[in-house]
Amino acid sequence: RAGFVAIVGRPNVGKSTLLNRVLGEKVAIVSPRPQTTRTRILGVHTAPGLQVAFFDTPGLHRAKGTLNARMVETALTTLSEVDTVLVLVESGTGPNGRVEVGEATSWVIDQAKRSRKPLVLGVSKADRGPKELLLPVIAAYQGLAPWADVVPFSSFSGENVDALLEALARTL
Ligand code: GDP
Ligand code: MG
């Protein structure tokens, strides 16, 4: 299988760290500050039977409100040129343990849905808390995109990164 994947998500959700993990080299810039990723073609992951080229989608990284319509259209054009959209979201819960999908996150998911491409939702930073707290998070995101694979993973520990790649491969 082979194809093109656009990676989208709010700043700091862990896009660059995931790509560095998957691509095995420092091809994307990782920073605690947003907006340091500048390249559009980020790299190609090659494994037996699988080749995935990752694309950046800068116009969908910024928070809602700072966007102008033209930037969004540019980003949506990128989405129209790929096979699959990988949406990264964070694994966190609110202070009371409730899952709160923020407005900026649901905006990104909505834009990804507008592409009408297969979606995979990667729930990043799964190393940060107990596993049972991930279940309501997964359920919440699954509810927003019922047909998508929702895959919790950690780029730090590497857990489930293979499952994320397998979910992408199934769409190609
Ligand atoms: P981007 O803006 O989406 O490209 O996000 P980055 O990859 O630059 O990561 C933003 C911050 O999240 C950095 O401080 C990373 O160290 C941290 N981060 C990224 N992946 C993980 C992870 O798997 N686990 C944890 N705990 N932190 C992570
Ligand atoms: Mg980045």
Automatic annotation (TrEMBL):
Q: Where is this region: G2?
A: 35-39
According to the UniProt record, where is the region G5? 153-155
Entry binding sites for GTP = 9-16, 56-60, 124-127
Q: Is Hydrolase a UniProt keyword of this protein?
A: no
Residue spans crossing the bilayer: none
Membrane topology term reads: Peripheral membrane protein
Give me the ranges of the annotated region G4.
124-127
Superkingdom is Bacteria
Signal peptide position in this chain?
A: none
Name where it's found.
Answer: Cytoplasm; Cell membrane
**Keywords linked to the UniProt accession:** Cell membrane, Cytoplasm, GTP-binding, Membrane, Nucleotide-binding, Ribosome biogenesis, RNA-binding, rRNA-binding
Query: Where is the stretch described as G3?
Result: 56-59
Q: Where is this region: G1?
A: 9-16
Instruction: Give residue ranges for domain Era-type G.
Output: 1-172
Described by its record, this protein's role is as follows: An essential GTPase that binds both GDP and GTP, with rapid nucleotide exchange. Plays a role in 16S rRNA processing and 30S ribosomal subunit biogenesis and possibly also in cell cycle regulation and energy metabolism.
Tell me its family.
Belongs to the TRAFAC class TrmE-Era-EngA-EngB-Septin-like GTPase superfamily. Era GTPase family.
Q: How does it assemble?
A: Monomer.
Its protein name is GTPase Era
Organism, by scientific name, is Anaeromyxobacter paludicola
Q: Summarize which stretch of the complete protein this chain spans.
A: 26 to 197 of 327
